[in-house]
Amino acid sequence: MQSPPTASELAILQLLWDNGPLTVRQVHDALSEEKEVGYTTTLKTMQVMLDRGFLTREAQGRGHIYAAAIAKEDTQDKLLDNFLDRTFGGSVKGLVMRALGNRKASRKDIQELKALIDRLENEDQ
């Protein structure tokens, strides 16, 4: 099984998921808005991600365009499952209770959670 993306790799994937295919320069410029990062570091990280199968690359003129090769939802599911198992012993209730206890949920969020719970309960019947 392939190891999950690192935090740096996730930042790059998030940019590609949100914006579509980008050059290394475009990724680097966007990352640099958040924190200082060297261009060669961005390039090397993206090359490693290409080797790991997280990205695809197409030649465009003298440069390359990179795109995410893994789906956002699949990646989130795998990361969440891993986190849930490691941190909460697989307890969905423990995760949700902690999240709701630590953060203020909006009225809309609570209504959507109730609707989800109702739907899940009805599926079990």
UniProtKB/TrEMBL annotation:
InterPro entries: BlaI_family (IPR005650), WH-like_DNA-bd_sf (IPR036388), WH_DNA-bd_sf (IPR036390)
Domain of life: Bacteria
GO biological process, alphabetically ordered: negative regulation of DNA-templated transcription
Pfam families linked: Penicillinase_R
Annotated keywords: DNA-binding, Transcription, Transcription regulation
GO molecular function: DNA binding
Family: Belongs to the BlaI transcriptional regulatory family.
Protein name: Putative transcriptional regulator
Source organism: Neolewinella xylanilytica
